Amino acid sequence: MRSLIQRFAPDGRIARTRWLGEGLVAAGLGFGVPAVIGLVLWTTSPFPDSGAGGALRVVAGLWLLAHGAELVRAETLSGIPAPIGLTPLLLTALPCWLLHRAVRVALIGERDPALGPRAALWVSAGYLLPAVPAALYTLGGPISVHPPSALLAMPLLTCAVALASAVSVLGWPAPWPDPYRLAAAGRAAVAGTAAVVGAGALLAAGALVLHADAAQRTFGQLSGPWSGQIAVLLLGLALAPNAAVWAAAYGLGPGFTLGAGSLLAPLPFGGGTGEGPRLPAFPLLAVAPGGTGGGWAVWAVAAVVPAAGIGVLAHFTARGAVRSGSGPAATALTALLAAVGCGVVLGGLATLAGGPLGTAALAEFGPDPLLTGAAGAAWGVVGGVPLALALRAWQLRTAGPWQLLTGRLWRWREARAEQLEPVPGAGKGRGPKARRRRWDRTRGRGRGADRARPRGRWPGRRRKGGPDIEPLGPGTISRLRRLLRPEPSGAAAEPPLSAVPRTPDVPFDQETDGSARP
């Protein structure tokens, strides 16, 4: 593709044309994968309602829905168009990965961080070009896109992912005040968000295991043919990340709603009714908790979510601070920025994971974005900042905990033994003479000096059976000085061989062995 662009593009525009082409390729791949799946399901369906054009319209609508756009379903029992704003996050993961890959390929061989935002915008422009005909193609079908939501959501998501990918490849551009701290905070925020969502996924998986019978019954009620069951299974897999985000919001505290003003949370937070409406049969909806509260067991299980986020955020922050040599103030600032970033990302995920599925009772589904983001940031600030400082201090310690403990125990044991052990010949061990004998014994003099033990930093780590260290006596230093002092000699020392001047008449062998000296 690069050679084709270099052949037809004018000089000076090769890079921009290549960036635009990478965005077009990413958009084509992102639309092609769901198109293939949709056409296969339409081909194997025993009751196809429309032709391949109708299936492709549905696929185009799902592709726009994956980017956060809102769809409108015209064919309803009441005749009122029903909005569909709940985005399957598994469908969103594919376009995000393709955009990230397109930006990485576009920036191959580049080293200037200032070039990253410009390349990201050109890749985003190329990616958004097919969105216009896709949105126009859905109009008039059973499921059409809501144009204002598409104009707002698609460019926002595309540019955000592209810019984040450019920063991850080339780093922050020059105008930012402290790019290293922002990069460290970004890594900690992403890791903390992944930990929170991962803990929510474990929470949702546990609920699904506990309510496996109800989920299996609802799965069988939705469709009889195997093609329909496969479609329901794929829909459940596409919504599985949404369930993880919902469970994460439940563990953070705000919870989520299932429509009709209901609230499902571990604590009565927000003034909801606590009871959900009568919902259609679906496996993921069958495992939802029943209202607010639930006792200490529910609170303990829900506390795993913020604990995982706090621990991972603090670990990444402290590790980066130790490697860069940052002080406590810089570490606290990095942890604070990471907590704010974690809250922003969680709020964005809650925005995509929730939305309307209809009108009236189904007009609101999922967690509240503002409350979820605020709760994630608050947990990070309250728990992440102190834990990051503690982990930094722990990683900068000079000795291990076991060494510190054993050293203290040995020193206390020796001091206690010296206090309790009587000195031979000192009576009851009282008075100035007894103190003098004890002092002489510890210094290696007098009676009992053979039982004196060496005192070091780690006395308990002396090799077993090894020789004791004998203290130096008062005459040892003077004897060593006499032995090492050179004896005076009356004979004059001969000059070194190197001092003999070299003349052309003296051969080299005689010059080296000194035989040619005058």
Automatic annotation (TrEMBL):
Amino acid composition bias (Basic and acidic residues), ranges on this chain: 441-453
Keyword line: Membrane, Transmembrane, Transmembrane helix
Record-given protein name: Integral membrane protein
Listed transmembrane segments: 20-42, 79-100, 120-139, 151-172, 184-210, 230-252, 296-318, 330-350, 370-391
UniProt-annotated stretches for the region Disordered: 421-518
Keyword set includes Ribosomal protein: no
Ranges annotated as biased composition (Basic residues): 430-440, 454-464
Lineage: Bacteria, Bacillati, Actinomycetota, Actinomycetes, Kitasatosporales
Organism: Streptomyces cheonanensis
Source superkingdom: Bacteria
Pfam family, one: DUF6350
Keyword Transmembrane helix: yes
